[in-house]
Amino acid sequence: MIRAALIQLRSGTDMARNLVDASGLIREAAGQGASFVTTPEMTNILEPDRPRLRSLAKPESEDGSVGAFSVLAQELGLWLNVGSLALRAPGERLVNRSLLFTPGGTIAARYDKIHLFDVDLPTGERLRESHAYDGGTEAVLVETPLGAIGLTICYDMRFPHLYRALAKAGAKLFTVPSAFTVPTGQAHWHVLLRARAIETGSFVLAAAQGGKHESGRETFGHSLIVSPWGEVLAEAGTEPGILIADLDLAQADLARARIPALVHDRAMSLTVLKPD
Fold first, then answer.
1. pTM exceeds 0.90, yes or no
2. Counting CB atoms within 10 angstroms of each CB, which of 101, 116, 203, 230 has the fewest?
3. Would you name the residues annotated as active-site residues?
4. Is the pLDDT of residue 221 over 90?
5. What is the set of domains in the chain, with CATH numbers?
6. How large is the average pLDDT for residues 241-256?
């Protein structure tokens, strides 16, 4: 049994304050018995102004939050998934990187967000993640004493083949740290996360940013813990806080036995017809 905790944040542009806020909630979760904790996308900073973000972001080796989270994981003796950090890549580019820390404080895995969010929203908001970030090229599965964990980030949830590949490789739990917009969250957040859980027979843990940020951007919140059968086990609102659930990974095996879709793939050809 895993006691998992999701940290919901409202990160701003002050990286030191964001670290204090996240660390306080992680400590609170550990005090409630959590052995696995995950935080949202952009835990260290949520800054929509790209030039300013580039000036503030540091390489992983120089980012103060990386060292602080390492110490915190070791102090609390828990597995800590820092959902994602904005970090500087070589040159002027950035990476959106998820880190998994062991209870010893070492980094067990790194995952750079593969799918970048480039979209024009009905609200007039224009988001171009690819203008600042380099997308990752490798899916990451981490085999831990808690179970096999697939690391993903936000927009990745719209690409079911990623989750299917990770599940076939052994993942029974997915982290989906996010900073969803409100319009897309209202329309798609629950259905996409439940779909990824049902399709793969896996637990889905989606820690989110929520509420109105100091930059003026508003994120959807509603951090979710979803069972392998697609049930919502716990859901947050829009305020920062903690979401906790006890997970039995044997439920993943039961769900996959009931609906063994992961082993029913068939090779196929595609016919395109153009009637006159």
1. yes
2. 230
3. 41, 113, 154
4. yes
5. 2-263 (3.60.110.10)
6. 98
